[in-house]
Write a structure and sequence with these properties.
Blueprint: E1 8-11, H1 17-26, E2 31-34, E3 45-48, H2 53-63, H3 65-74, E4 79-82, H4 84-89, E5 90-94, E6 104-109, E7 119-124, E8 134-139, E9 143-147, E10 152-157, E11 160-166, E12 169-172, H5 183-190
Parallel strand pairs: 1-2, 1-3, 3-4, 4-12, 5-6
Antiparallel strand pairs: 6-9, 7-8, 10-11, 11-12
The chain binds glutamine.
Length: 196
């Protein structure tokens, strides 16, 4: 889909990238799938979906996507990481430590809700972007253990930060594409500056 505006890139290595595409279509936004560094050219923003961060990391290394995504971020283009995508964006990863892009000053612990709680649906609060509670689906989700000084907490659930932002980088530990609630994607699209 392309409606004349630059598309939002969706990293399509693994995970539920198709549901992000559907959400963008509902919001009338153009999108394109990103598998290689060259696919980033012409994209106005990038979504890094959930999945398995170790698998994504391997793919990043094979395809040389790490430097390309860092360069994309340095151009000020918005990047939204959900769950595994948030893990890849973090400055520090625990349980176990693993390589990361370091674009977002948080410490994040993988699979931190424990094996008993494999997945859950919560009602979280994002007061700056929604007056109503936001439905949040957590699947083998990480927990943000530290939030750096320049990072804004935009959403909380169960007393924990679950949606954070640092400049052009946005990250959620939940899966906004799995609900009908368009709040988070609409907010992300709003970050795309005119002309970028
Ligand atoms: N547990 C996964 C990881 O550590 C993330 C799960 C998800 O993206 N839903 O990479």
């Amino acid at each position: 889909m392309n409606n004349g505006r630059k598309p939002v890139g969706i990293l399509a290595v693994q995970g539920d990238f198709e549901l992000h595409a559907k959400m963008l279509e509902r919001l009338g936004a153009a999108w394109k799938l990103v598998k290689r560094p060259a696919d980033l050219s012409g994209a106005a923003a990038l979504i890094m979906p959930g999945g398995e961060s170790t698998t994504m990391l391997k793919f990043f290394q094979e395809e040389g996507l790490g430097p390309a995504v860092k360069d994309f971020a340095a151009q000020g283009k918005p990047i939204f990481g959900t769950c595994a995508g948030a893990i890849l964006l973090a400055r520090e990863v625990l349980n176990p430590p693993q390589d990361h892009l370091g674009l977002l000053d948080i410490t994040i612990e993988r699979n931190a809700y424990g094996r008993q709680i494999d997945s859950s649906v919560e009602r979280g609060e994002c007061p700056e972007i929604s007056s109503k509670p936001v439905e949040m689906v957590f699947i083998r989700a990480p927990i943000i253990r530290r939030v750096g000084e320049g990072v804004r907490v935009l959403g909380r659930a169960g007393g924990l930060p679950v949606l954070v932002e640092q400049g052009n980088i946005l990250a959620a530990t939940f899966h906004p594409e799995l609900t009908k609630d368009e709040t988070i994607h609409r907010y992300f699209i709003g970050k795309i500056a005119d002309g970028k």
